Amino acid sequence: MRVGLFIPCYVDQFYPNAGIATYKLLVKLGVDVSYPMGQTCCGQPMANSGFAHLTKECDELFVDNFSAFDYIVSPSGSCVLHLKDHLHSEKNEAGAQGIRKKIYELVEFLVDVLKVDNLQASFPYKVGLHQSCHGQRGLLLSQMTELVAPYFSKPEQLLAQVKGLELVPLSRGDECCGFGGTFCVVEEAVSSKMGKDRVKDHLSHGAEYITGADMSCLMHMEGILKRENSKVKVLHIAEILNAD
Question: Closest Cα to residue 158, out of 128, 125, 118?
Answer without folding.
Answer: 118
